[in-house]
Amino acid sequence: MNISKQTVSCKVPGKLFFAGEYAVTKPEHLALITTIASDFEVNISASKQKSVLKTNVGLPDFEFSLTKIDFTKENPWNFALTALQKTLTASQECVSKISEQSLEICLEIQSQMGFGEQKKGYGSSASVVCGVVNAVNAYFDLQLSLEQRFELAAAAHFEVQGSGSMGDIAAIMYGGSVFYQNHSRIMPLEIPWATYVVQTGKAAKTAEKLEIELADEFYQKSNELVIEIATALDIQDFELFKEKLSQNQLLLLENIPAGYMTPKLALALNLINTYPEFAGKISGAGFGENVILFAQSEAPIKELQEKLENEAISLEKFTIAPKNN
Predict the structure, then answer these.
(1) What is the total count of domains within the chain?
(2) pLDDT averaged over the chain?
(3) 174: β partners
(4) Buried-most residue among 14, 35, 67, 317 (CB within 10 A)?
């Protein structure tokens, strides 16, 4: 194990669910998730004194000792600290070297994903744990496999949040787009069309929304639609893809309580659906945030963008993050 003396930087994507987002909260059910390349970055460098966590999103710096990472559940850095702790203790050799050499680090998180009421809904907490696990693995040369890093990030996220399917962790850690069922069934997925995100500017706390009780019939139908949407992607049939994505959207509208589709989300979807070249879907838990848009042809995109901007809704093209190894 060779501990780096240089700064290690890890880029981390966000995520956007586009099918199965409520069903996957129940074990063994299915979801489709894509990543969104972002400027989220985790940097680690050596510190001569105490270890310190820093960020640009409004949290105060947090100092601690790497030999004894001590914090409360209420600590606003709990996702990063839990991921750091779990990753370091995955290697007893690393723990021993830290103690013998009195090593300390500066771990800095840079993000434009927003924080609190300004969150963009791209899975910032999942990006934190995945970024910390990957950066610590690289800095301390732990040589953990992708599967091991996923397991560590998932365990850290679940420990802090107390709920979740780990689908967001899977997408962010593996990169690209994924068909997700559980920790042992994460399959790569190719999206052959251009991807955009429509941002309404209203943040929503996903964890609170995912506690909604749903009937068994909902989960069965959601799984069927996820498989059909994935099939449409595989055979690159845009009309079938749009039809099944719309059915998935309708299933959610019929089963999720009032408020799932905000006026701005409804307006954005109605505008998108007037174009046969576009397919749109509320991404994630709804109640604000984003619509993901797939474009078979990008010719009318500027016209749509102008219409949305007139309603104070933004439309941005995004790049799907590369697959990791």
Answers:
(1) 2
(2) 90
(3) none
(4) 35
